[in-house]
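Handoff note, outgoing to incoming analyst
You'll be picking up this chain. Sequence as last confirmed:
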Amino acid sequence: MTVVNINDLEADVVPGTELLLSKAGSQNGDADQILLIPEPSDEPDDPLNWSPTWKAIVVINQAIFVFISILTPLAIAPLTPIFIHEFQKTLPQVNMLFGAAAMALGYANFIIVPFSNIFGRRPTIIICGLICVLANIWQALVTSYPSFLGARVISGLGAAANESIMPMVVADVMFLHQRGLWMGLYFWSYFIGVFFGPIISGNIAAHVSWRWFFWVCTILQGFSLIVMILLFPETRYSRSPSPPLSSTASSNSSTIGRATTTSEPKVEPVITAQTTNPPQVTSPTSDLESGIVRASRHTTHIIGRPSRAQFSLIPRRIPNNALKHTIIRDVFAPIQIFTYPIVLWVVLAFGMSTNCLLALNLTQSQVFAAPPYLFTPAQVGFVNFAFVVGGIIGLCTAGPISDAVSIYLARRNGGVREAEMRLWTMIPYIAICLIGMVITGVGYQEHYNWPVIVVVGYGFVGIECVSIPTILISYAVDCYKHIPGQIMVSATIVKNTFGFGMIFYFNDWAIRSGFIPPVMTLMALAVGICTIGTAVFLIWGKQFRRTTQGSKLHLL
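Most recent structure output, in case you need it:
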């Protein structure tokens, strides 16, 4: 591993630049150890110190909630012909049932994120789960279009927690080098719900009744709510903020030439709360490096578990003196970060790449229920299996590969990890997005055999709509790690607002001009924005991070 000059690093440390690898305390002088960012406390109930089993339980619990809660708002595409007939409405009016839920999904997070930061993730997710259960019952019982529209809005309000809470939980319990994988699980759960929802709704409508789709969702949501109450502890944890990077680096540079024995980072093997063996002392150089980014002092941590208090149903509010600050931060931060070039690119690329999936959801009944395919609602639902397979491929590749590439490049960079190192993995997925959308758009227009459209077109879009958002959001959180919830709010607003607009023109545009113009336009937006941004930020990303390093958002 290349040795980094400590003075050079001191001058070039900005948020998103981390000392990720160190030889401190290693049995083998050539072996690298991954440094823990953020720095865990010495308390066993610190979520960063929870055992791998408890961390998995917590995150998988959230993944189950995300999967189930997204079924109802975004799974009605195969039911479109049924709703047109039953409520005597036009296609754009029926699409409004989707749009109303989508808008609520996005903008409700202006309330959900502040509430979760004030009262905690646990009460927030339980309340939202209860709202989902009640909204599902309402949708199963509706008798008129206006009532249905109202139920869809309430459903979106409850399900909106799946747009922000899980990324916040991942940031609460996982270290920096682990987040790509678990952020991938989040997007996989989200989009698997979007993919499986139409399969479930179409088959239930074909064999029983469309109302029973909402009853099934009620049962599943009730199960998720019970599991959440029993097995989802509070993950919000008050920890001391890291000191400013420059001041930390400066103070440590004065210690060059003398060993420091008062700082004792924890080293392998992983120790438990009962371990009494003293940790090893690092070398002067390692100690200096650990001071540049305070969170890099530890390579291991104690193994704990949630406390009983973290399972309480009574929320623990933050201190009164921080209440006003938290509300202002959570309301205005999602707007303020639109002025940051990195976040602006991330949310635009996120919105375009995910709405490629929406384009196919909006048109699948329009295409496959018509000649020459003449699919039934159940068969229209089955085409979404291609998205499922693609999503699984995206889950198994995007997060783990982006984490592995970051670690590999950090090792070549003397243990220093730059946030942009993750962006190299965008390149193959941008190509996959282009191929998938071109085959789908041309296949729609030229009436290709359905396996070509579904297997290649839908499958490739399934891969990209999990992979690209995973890499993008992980990159943004790497750069602005204190505000993952606010980043998701901004991304969701862009995604859902653009998607809401699509329901008014996309189908009609396809009728007037054919499928190639609308599908290719969305492909060009997604591929163009992703490609240009990836090239720009791979070269100048650190300079853009440096321009915002004085922002108070880094101290939240």
